[in-house]
């Protein structure tokens, strides 16, 4: 399959383990000297059994190129969406996320276990705010606007949002805008300037700046990756 990510394209093969599947990968020696994770309940056991593995107990998933590992079963979905995003593009990964009723944007570096002192319904309300924002990326979106929709203070919203997604609210909005731009680059012939306006980034220069910072490539190069061989 064509790959949008040159690192993924260079992989001779890829192996991914979800949750305690990391123990099987570690037993082969493939994780020696590499970062890896597993369910937080078993990270200490993995580190003790395989001391050459650099166990990271605080993340949802780890991408080490040819080998990938995730925490629990739910974060295995995040890992699979990450793989889809790299191999088939953001449109495919977002479609899969919608079919799975999963969050399209969760950072691999997000803490996998955060003790909660706030009732879970607040998190559900934030999910509704994220969905609301996804349909308004072309409009001005500020921290106050998002917090007002969620019905909480900006301070509470910022703290809980970071716990839920691994990003600050405005980092998440920026990545959502860049991902929407990726989807438009993949499936439309709109110019970079037009797409920048569509996703709320104003100018092509602004889109190029954030595209380079987040993805390490340009919108034009990204689009060429998905038009090769068509």
Topology:
Elements: H1 6-9, E1 15-18, H2 21-27, E2 35-36, H3 43-49, E3 54-55, E4 61-63, E5 67-70, H4 73-88, H5 90-100, H6 120-134, H7 143-150, H8 154-165, H9 169-187, H10 192-198, H11 204-215, H12 219-227
Parallel strand pairs: 1-5, 2-3
Antiparallel strand pairs: 4-5
Helix pairs in contact: 4-5, 6-7, 7-8, 9-11, 9-12, 10-11
What does this molecule look like?
The chain has 230 residues and is mostly helical. It has helices at residues 6-9, 21-27, 43-49, 73-88, 90-100, 120-134, 143-150, 154-165, 169-187, 192-198, 204-215, 219-227; strands at residues 15-18, 35-36, 54-55, 61-63, 67-70. It folds into 2 domains: 10-86, Rossmann fold, CATH 3.40.50; 118-230, Homeodomain-like (Arc Repressor Mutant, subunit A), CATH 1.10.10.60. 55% of the residues lie in helices and 7% in strands. It has a 3-stranded mixed β-sheet with strand order 1-5-4. Helix 10 crosses helix 11 (204-215).
């Amino acid at each position: 399959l064509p790959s949008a990510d040159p690192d993924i394209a260079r992989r001779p093969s890829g192996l991914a383990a979800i949750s305690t599947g990391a123990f099987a990968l570690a037993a082969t020696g493939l994780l020696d000297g590499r970062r890896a994770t597993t369910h937080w309940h078993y990270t200490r056991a993995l580190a003790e059994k395989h001391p050459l593995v650099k166990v990271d107990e605080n993340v949802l998933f780890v991408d080490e190129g040819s080998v990938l590992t995730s925490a629990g079963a739910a974060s295995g979905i995040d890992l699979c969406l990450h793989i889809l995003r790299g191999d088939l593009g953001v449109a495919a990964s977002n479609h899969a996320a919608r079919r799975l009723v999963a969050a399209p944007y969760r950072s691999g570096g997000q803490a996998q276990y955060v003790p909660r002192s706030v009732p879970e319904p607040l998190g559900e309300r934030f999910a509704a705010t994220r969905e609301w924002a996804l349909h308004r990326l072309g409009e001005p979106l500020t921290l106050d606007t998002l917090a007002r929709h969620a019905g909480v203070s900006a301070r509470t919203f910022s703290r809980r949002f970071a716990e839920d997604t691994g990003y600050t609210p405005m980092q998440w909005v920026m990545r959502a805008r860049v991902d929407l731009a990726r989807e438009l680059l993949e499936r439309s012939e709109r110019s970079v300037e037009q797409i920048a306006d569509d996703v709320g980034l104003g100018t092509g220069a602004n889109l190029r700046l954030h595209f380079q910072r987040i993805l390490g490539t340009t919108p034009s190069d990204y689009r060429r990756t998905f038009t090769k061989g068509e």
